[in-house]
């Protein structure tokens, strides 16, 4: 039996249109336009692409986009001064500093200088602590997108066995906290885990965030499990071209799983949609308004 393919592209488009509707209502009813500031230091090619598409989609949903491009040699003090200015600007509800930062900067110090209520990436230590203690936080966009897809597909996840493969601060750890919040029994695997296949075989929910092409094999997957593939890996394809694949061996896993996300077209599009949702949430919270329904945890 072939798995249901969870269409992240369509789901992300639906989230963006729900965000757009609520942005329009905020403007009409309260005269508020949510604003997202994106700061890019240097000229990393992949970051340029992300920043451009973030800016375009921000405008498409009716929000204000503020882009700040700083040269590679910008000092950390100058970047911190810009962040202080954005923290104080009432037109800016969300601030995102595109990572990675140049090597001479301390990324933790920079991220922790952002006002946590404007930290739409959810990386500030306060938001990490709030999420870890089950309180209202800004939730990192990629895990939030994964959770939304899981909720949509599975509904109640209480009591299910879940495994998160990868323990990064950006994906693995927050994902594990979110699944705990859904009352799953959560395991976290990483490079030192012994016999990952064995742990994966017990799981009803598998979230793979490793960065190793097709590492998770089809015969590791429990029949009927839901598989969320966060990995984005560029591999060589025929004719000297390249293509993107996930961390899961999709063709084999889809024969066993109950549902699975493809790469591309799964988690990827959800990340920017959730960034927009977080910016809307931040604008509502900043103005003491109810949070947008179905767009937060
Ligand atoms: P990191 O490199 O920060 O973390 C990778 C994790 O995988 C680490 O915890 C590492 O373990 C673990 N790992 C590495 N090798 C193995 C192995 N052989 N067996 C088990 N675990 C292993 O990556 P990120 O979390 O930032 O990203 C993971 C993937 O997700 C990447 O492909 C990235 O491109 C993608 N990604 C996709 C996004 C999207 O929008 N769809 C957004 C963010 C990331 P250890 O800690 O022991 O080293």
Automatic annotation (TrEMBL):
Domain Tetrahydrofolate dehydrogenase/cyclohydrolase NAD(P)-binding: 140-285
Membrane spanning residue stretches: none
Residues where NADP(+) binds: 166-168, 232
All residue ranges annotated as the Tetrahydrofolate dehydrogenase/cyclohydrolase catalytic domain in the record: 6-121
UniProt-listed PROSITE patterns: THF_DHG_CYH_1, THF_DHG_CYH_2
Gene3D superfamilies cross-referenced by the UniProt entry: Leucine Dehydrogenase, chain A, domain 1 (3.40.50.10860), NAD(P)-binding Rossmann-like Domain (3.40.50.720)
Biological processes annotated in GO: L-histidine biosynthetic process; methionine biosynthetic process; purine nucleotide biosynthetic process; tetrahydrofolate interconversion
Protein name per its UniProtKB record: Bifunctional protein FolD
The keyword Metal-binding is annotated on this UniProt entry: no
Subunit-structure text: Homodimer.
Keyword Signal: no
E.C. number: 1.5.1.5, 3.5.4.9
Alphabetized UniProt keyword annotations: Amino-acid biosynthesis, Histidine biosynthesis, Hydrolase, Methionine biosynthesis, Multifunctional enzyme, NADP, One-carbon metabolism, Oxidoreductase, Purine biosynthesis
Organism lineage string: Bacteria, Pseudomonadati, Pseudomonadota, Alphaproteobacteria, Rhodobacterales
Listed pathway(s): One-carbon metabolism; tetrahydrofolate interconversion
Parts forming coiled coils: none
Catalytic reaction list: (6R)-5,10-methylene-5,6,7,8-tetrahydrofolate + NADP(+) = (6R)-5,10-methenyltetrahydrofolate + NADPH; (6R)-5,10-methenyltetrahydrofolate + H2O = (6R)-10-formyltetrahydrofolate + H(+)
Domain of life: Bacteria
Gene Ontology CC: one annotated term: cytosol
GO molecular function: methenyltetrahydrofolate cyclohydrolase activity; methylenetetrahydrofolate dehydrogenase (NADP+) activity
Gene from which the chain derives: folD_1
Family affiliation: Belongs to the tetrahydrofolate dehydrogenase/cyclohydrolase family.
Function statement: Catalyzes the oxidation of 5,10-methylenetetrahydrofolate to 5,10-methenyltetrahydrofolate and then the hydrolysis of 5,10-methenyltetrahydrofolate to 10-formyltetrahydrofolate.
Entries under InterPro entries matching the protein: Aminoacid_DH-like_N_sf, NAD(P)-bd_dom_sf, THF_DH/CycHdrlase, THF_DH/CycHdrlase_cat_dom, THF_DH/CycHdrlase_CS, THF_DH/CycHdrlase_NAD-bd_dom
């Amino acid at each position: 039996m072939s798995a249901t393919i969870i269409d992240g592209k369509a789901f992300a488009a639906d989230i963006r249109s729900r965000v757009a509707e609520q942005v329009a209502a905020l403007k009409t009813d309260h005269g508020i336009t949510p604003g997202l500031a994106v700061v890019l230091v240097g000229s990393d090619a992949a970051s340029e692409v992300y920043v451009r598409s973030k800016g375009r989609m921000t405008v498409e949903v009716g929000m204000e986009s503020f882009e700040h491009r700083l040269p590679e040699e910008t000092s950390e003090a100058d970047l911190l001064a810009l962040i202080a200015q954005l923290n104080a600007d009432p037109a800016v509800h969300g601030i995102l500093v595109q990572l990675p930062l140049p090597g001479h900067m301390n990324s933790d110090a920079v991220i922790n200088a952002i006002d946590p209520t404007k930290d739409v990436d959810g990386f500030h230590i306060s938001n990490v602590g709030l999420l870890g203690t089950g309180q209202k936080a800004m939730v990192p966009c990629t895990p939030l997108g994964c959770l939304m897809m899981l909720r949509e597909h599975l509904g109640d996840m209480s009591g299910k066995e879940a495994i998160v493969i990868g323990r990064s601060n950006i994906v693995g750890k927050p994902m594990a906290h979110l699944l705990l919040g859904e009352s799953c029994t959560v395991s976290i695997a990483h490079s030192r885990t012994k016999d990952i296949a064995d742990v994966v075989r017990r799981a009803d929910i598998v979230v793979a965030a490793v960065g190793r092409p097709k590492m998770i094999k089809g015969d590791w997957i429990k029949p009927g499990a839901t598989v969320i593939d966060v990995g984005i890996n560029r591999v060589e394809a025929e004719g000297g071209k390249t293509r993107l694949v996930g961390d899961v061996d999709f063709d084999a896993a889809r024969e066993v799983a109950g549902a699975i996300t493809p790469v591309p077209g799964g988690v990827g599009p959800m990340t920017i949609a959730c960034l927009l949702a977080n910016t809307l949430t931040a604008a509502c919270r900043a103005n003491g308004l109810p949070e947008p329904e179905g767009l937060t945890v």
